[in-house]
Every structure is written in C-alpha cells, then in structure tokens.
Amino acid sequence: MPGFRAVAPGIMAAETLSSRAVTAYIFPMIADFLRRLTAPAPAPLPDTDARLALSALLVRIAKSDGDYAAEEIRRIDRILQARYRLNQVEAAKLRAQAEEIEHQAPDTVRFTRAIKEAVGYDDRLAVIESLWEVVLADGQRDDDENALLRTVAPLLGVTDQESAQARQRVENRPA
Fold this sequence. Notes:
two-stranded antiparallel sheet, 2 strands, mainly alpha, TerB-like
C-alpha cells in the first residue's frame, strides 16, 4: 500500500505509487470490487467492501460540482473516522481507495443501484445524512450537488422526505 503524507492541515494524501505497485495490487482489487458490486445479482457486501462503496459515494457527491474542495475532503475523512472508528491515516487510506473506486465506477445510477442491493437500509439512510454533510461542508448548496442527491436518494431506497429530514438534521448540528 502507498505511504501517506500531509498535504494540508488535516488532509492526508497518497504518495506516488510505482506503476508496478498499482498494476500488482490496486487495479486488480478495484476491478474485482466493481465486478462484484455491479454483478446482475450482487450479494450483500462484506463490511470492508460496503465501507468502500459508501465512501466512494461520498467522494462522488463532493466531486459533482467540479470543485473537490479541501473542506469536503476533510469532512469525508471526519465522517469515515466517526462512522468506522478509524484514525486519521486509516480514514485517508480509505478515502484514497474510494477516490479510485469513484473514478473507475460506472455511472451513478448503476453504481447507486448496486449499492442499494448490497447494503442494508439503515446504512443507506445514514449515508444520505453523510452525503448532506459533504454537500454542506463548503457552506454552499450547489445545483449539481443537489441534483445528484435528488437522484441518489431514491436509487438508494430513501424517500425525498427522509432525505430532507437528513439535511435538516445536518443543518441543525452545531458547527
């Protein structure tokens, strides 16, 4: 696995990987993961794969407005730390893997439907709340982020009302 270094306060990034390491480890792992996730009838994901899929969705929402801001990256890391009881480096590693999964994943509709089939409802509802945390992290509700969340919520089996309630919970939290 790659080493990690601080690139800004609170943000860890993967150091450059050799092409041999990428070929030998990362790409086969991602290809296998995506193959399992997008199979015609995906089996429930093991916990580590569910973490990766849901983390990739957080990355996708953060990138949806074309500005993958440092505050969004920090928020994703904090969400991963809290949700999965990870330290800063572990969260950064998970995010780095999620960034690659998000980059390689199919379109959002197929990716999100696959997650719905493989991840339990309670986790999907919690992810909607986490997605709102990322959307609101930079203090702006971008139209692209809103549109993606309006698409993703029902694909995950979460109603518009439940999504709105999740957004309100996030907005009402102390900063």
